[in-house]
Amino acid sequence: MPALQGIGVLVTRPEQQAMPLCRRLEMEGASTLRLPAVEITAVGNRRETAARLGTLGNFDFIIFTSANAVRFGAALLDQNRDLTLAAIGPATARALNQAGYRVSVQPPGGTYDSESLLLHPRLEHSAGRRILIIKGSEGRPFLEQELARRGARVAAAEVYRRIPAAPSRAALEAVLEKFSAGAVQVITATSLGIATHLLRMATPRLRAEFERAHWLVPGERVALGLRERGLRAPLLQAESADDHDLVRALVRWREGASGA
Q1: Which CATH number belongs to the domain containing residue 221 in this structure?
Q2: How many structural domains comprise the chain?
Q3: Angle, to 10 degrees, between the axis of helix 15-27 and the axis of helix 243-258?
Q4: Most CB contacts within 10 A, which of 7, 96, 214, 217?
Q5: Residue range(s) defining the domain that contains residue 105
Q6: Looking at 163, 198, 215, which one is the last position of a domain?
Q7: Are strands 31-34 and 8-11 parallel, antiparallel or unpaired?
Q8: Alpha helices (runs of H) in 54-181, residue ranges in sequence order
Q9: Whole-structure pTM value
Q10: Mean pLDDT, residues 136-152
């Protein structure tokens, strides 16, 4: 029997990113339901941004903070294959590889976040180096601040932003029906922003159902943020927001719950 047979999962990623995760979950036997909590839109003008940044070859490193940063910001590279690129995790690295670029720097361990990327030897001693961070407009400032504290000369290019999704009343009612029927046991929240918007959009009845489900989150920072926002539901922590790690964490939980 597939590992996730009988498990229903609410996938809350933006529409364009939800399907790969849904397919992985369904391959393991889960049923999936989509309710995007945020939408991703481009910001800025590429030509103006490129003019402001100048010659990218002058940067020692160019860091992409997410697959969305690649989606909206890879055009800034202008097909230059000689740049030294860093990715915050495997999903970001894959997006760069698929766009035809080689990634030189990734987090050295199995955790994929700003803190882990900063442990890489090539970033650990960054005084005097010029570093460009390509990111979203509401991303964490930690990476930029820490590199500057270490003495790097840091520039940032914000290429996308997340906006709260606005599902119809009918869409929320349909999701509530699935929860009420016992068809959903797990909710994914792959970032704190997604989790926050999901809680805000929920009706009181749906919010009550959310407390009875397990929430699948990528690590302790999102877990702590959810607790700070009043969520008391059980939390399942994956090693990262990568699809593979999310599904692996869910399979591990299911096997533990079933005594397998």
Answers
A1: 3.40.50.10090
A2: 2
A3: 40
A4: 217
A5: 41-163
A6: 163
A7: parallel
A8: 67-73, 90-98, 114-117, 121-124, 142-149, 169-180
A9: 0.84
A10: 92
